[in-house]
Amino acid sequence: MYKRQIHANPELSFQEYQTAALVADTLAEIGGYRVRTGVGKTGVVADLGDDGPLIAIRADMDALPIIEANDAPYCSCNPGVMHACGHDAHTAILLGVAHMLHQSYREEKWHGRVRLLFQPAEEAVDENNISGATAMIDDGALEGIDAVIALHVSADQPSGQFQFHDGPSLAAVDSFDAWLYGDGAHGAYPHTGSDPLFMLAPVLSALYAIPSRRINPLDASVVSLGHISGGEASNVIPNEVMLRGTLRSLRAEVREQLWADVENALRLTEHLGGGYKLNIIKGYPPMINDPEANGWMRVVAANLLGEGVVKERPFGMGAEDFAYMTQRGKGAMFMLGAAVPEGAPRHHHTSTFDIDESVLAPGAAVLAETARRFVTGRL
Predict the structure, then answer these.
(1) Nearest to 105, CA basis, from 45, 44, 34
(2) Pairwise CA distance, residues 331 & 171, whole Å
(3) Which end of the chain has fewer surrounding CB within 10 Å, N or C?
(4) Are 41 and 14 in contact (CB under 8 A)?
(5) DSSP per residue over 215-260, as a string?
(6) DSSP character at residue 280
(7) How far apart are alpha carbons 324 and 69 in whole angstroms?
(8) What is the residue-averaged pLDDT of the chain?
(9) CB 26 within 8 A of CB 95
(10) How far is 158 from 259, CA to CA, in rounded Å?
């Protein structure tokens, strides 16, 4: 099974050499595909068909720097690296799509093209802040496309459910590094300097109040801190404290307001005898699901699997670099419920992540049939 083979051999962002080779070799075995490797550094692009409408289907291939804690025969053989978000499933599903579409093309000889995008580096960016989607776009992977579709497994949703949402569906993500500066002092004589640890308290209050007191309650936003460090000894007041955090939003106006309000919160240090430095690292934009493209996949899911599998719910404030692809064409992604039926939840980005593998075939079927209907004009 492709999924287990990929899961056992995870590779980090822009290091997916073995996975890309498996993909390219499999496509060659299937036959009929025009395959390009090294797209966006380690990505693979495969075209099937001739001139006509062109739809692309994307799957990401990279893993995370996590030590796997599962006890399964397909556990990671690469210490410290794990498929903890389902990208192994995405790649396996798209290989399944490749088989299905090849059979369909042989039988129907449709006029149009399907392009399979096996993307590197969704989880991380390179030294130039470039993710896998952007790298592939820069290498021409979306040239000439009319539409692009994808799925993401969700280990937190009931297995077999197809979750759809139109419009802004995943958040823009930005991170920030900030430093609070003071003079430092002897712990016994705090009055002789300015204390950045003391400044930290009002700054934290101001930061955490941004979503509830600065942003319109009707607009989704998140300000979260993941790191605070400062000082080494109990009797030494340090001269700086360092913070790291994440910002999430769904609208451009809110995104810009978050940047401004974080800076305003840090300015409190200037009223307390200190100063600050702020570095905002802009990440992925919000992922906008095109209602028409979403509608194609909704109808296909209902036709193939029944109306009961289709659910309409917001996705949440996670982020996806597929957002860059939906900016380039009519695009949409759905969430495929894949919760393991028994036992404790297997949450994303944790050492015990896992999914119900029975969802792989229906996920592939919906993507393949949507593409087939698109190129044959039957949507």
Answers:
(1) 34
(2) 16
(3) N
(4) yes
(5) S-TTS-EEEEEEEEE--SSTTEE-SEEEEEEEEEESSHHHHHHHHH
(6) E
(7) 33
(8) 97
(9) yes
(10) 36
Which residue among the candidates 16, 60, 68, 122 is catalytic per the annotation? 122
CA distances from 140 to 37, 275, 357 (A): 12, 45, 33
Amino acid 109: pLDDT = 87
Measured between alpha carbons, how far apart are the two ends of the chain, in Å? 31
Strands 172-181 and 240-249: antiparallel
Please report which helix (H) or strand (E) contains residue 174, including its range.
Answer: strand 172-181
pLDDT of residue 344: 75
Give the separation between CA 116 and CA 100, rounded to whole angstroms: 12
Decide if 368 contacts 101 (C-beta within 8 A): yes
Residue 343 has a pLDDT of 77
pTM listed for this prediction: 0.95
* Predicted local distance difference test score (pLDDT) of residue 129: 94
Active-site residue, selected from the candidate residues 11, 60, 62, 240: 62
For 79, 329, 348, the CA distances from 312, given in Å and listed in that order, are 39, 23, 21
* Structural tokens at position 151: 């799925």
pLDDT digits (tens, 9 = 90+) for 92-128: 999 999 999 999 999 998 989 999 999 999 999 999 9
- pLDDT on residue 49: 96
For residue 3, the model assigns a pLDDT of: 98
Cα distances from 292 to residues 117, 140, 147, 209, 376, in angstroms, run 21, 24, 10, 37, 17
What does the alpha-carbon distance between residue 344 and residue 201 come to, in Å, rounded to a whole number?
Answer: 37
Burial of 160 per CB tally in 10 Å (0-12, 13-18, 19+):
middle
> Which regions in the chain score pLDDT beneath 50?
none
Residue matched to tokens 């995870």 = 10
Distance CA 86, CA 63 (A): 8
How confident is the model over 332-355, as pLDDT tens digits?
Answer: 999 999 999 887 789 999 999 999
User: Has 122 been annotated as catalytic?
Assistant: yes
Residue matched to tokens 């719910």? 313
Of residues 159, 160, 152, the one with CA closest to residue 305: 160
Sign of CA dihedral 55, 43, 170, 279: negative
CB of 261 within 8 A of CB of 275?
no
CA–CA separation, 348 and 83 (whole Å): 9
Partners of 336 in beta bridges:
153, 162
